[in-house]
Write a structure and sequence with these properties.
The chain is α+β, with helices and mostly antiparallel strands. The protein contains seven helices and nine strands. Strands 1-2-3-9-4-7 form a six-stranded antiparallel sheet. A three-stranded antiparallel sheet has the order 6-5-8, with no helix packed on it.
Length: 195
């Protein structure tokens, strides 16, 4: 990370632009009110997990937070090479270790501009979002195009095959795994955007 990047000022600007008070953002993100204030005034340097949680309350991903000048293609149509590769944000996230298999996540267009994140996801055999369940302030759904995907949502577990789909509240802890010996391809959507 750039030494001159001001995390506090950036968070403050994004919160104000979203029309939220510190207390409102804290409630949306599920963090103590004082934590927002301490980060914005640079009294504390948040961990990656804490910052991700705070940003989920704004519907902003880590990439957009640290790379505000990045501008995805405008659309309305996108070729394969114009999809935005978010894989590094997934694999380096806490709890998202990818298991023994590779994960590839590519986004269609500008998710923030449309308040909708559409992803082309590829899970190679043994790919796993990790032992720590994902949880963020969104709703998400997806369609399995190829292969099989084990999805855990709360206490429910199901292996979805090609042609099957899912839709749930992302605040419920969840996990994705490919336990098969073939790759799995999923088209998913999340609103507001998570990554």
């Amino acid at each position: 990370m750039d030494q001159i990047f001001d995390i506090g000022a950036r968070l403050n600007a994004m919160r104000v632009a979203a029309g939220l008070s510190q207390r409102q953002l804290a409630e949306r993100a599920g963090v103590p009110h004082a934590q927002i204030s301490n980060v914005e005034t640079n009294k504390v340097s948040p961990s990656v997990a804490t910052l991700r949680k705070i940003l989920s309350g704004l519907g902003v991903g880590m990439g957009d937070f640290f790379e505000p000048e990045r501008s995805p293609p405008k659309g309305p149509f996108f070729s394969a090479h114009e999809l935005v590769d978010l894989t590094s944000q997934i694999v380096t996230s806490p709890g998202l270790d990818g298991g023994d298999g590779k994960l590839v996540f590519r986004q269609i267009g500008d998710a923030r501009a449309h308040n909708l994140q559409i992803l082309h996801e590829v899970y190679e055999p043994n790919a796993d979002t990790g032992d720590t369940p994902l949880q963020h302030a969104s709703s998400e759904g997806g369609y399995v195009v190829e292969g099989e995907l084990e999805l855990t949502v709360g206490d429910e577990v199901r292996v979805l095959k090609a042609g099957e789909a899912y839709l749930f509240d992302s605040r419920v802890p969840h996990r994705f795994r490919n336990l098969s010996d073939r790759r799995t391809v999923v088209i998913s959507a999340c609103s507001p955007p998570y990554l």
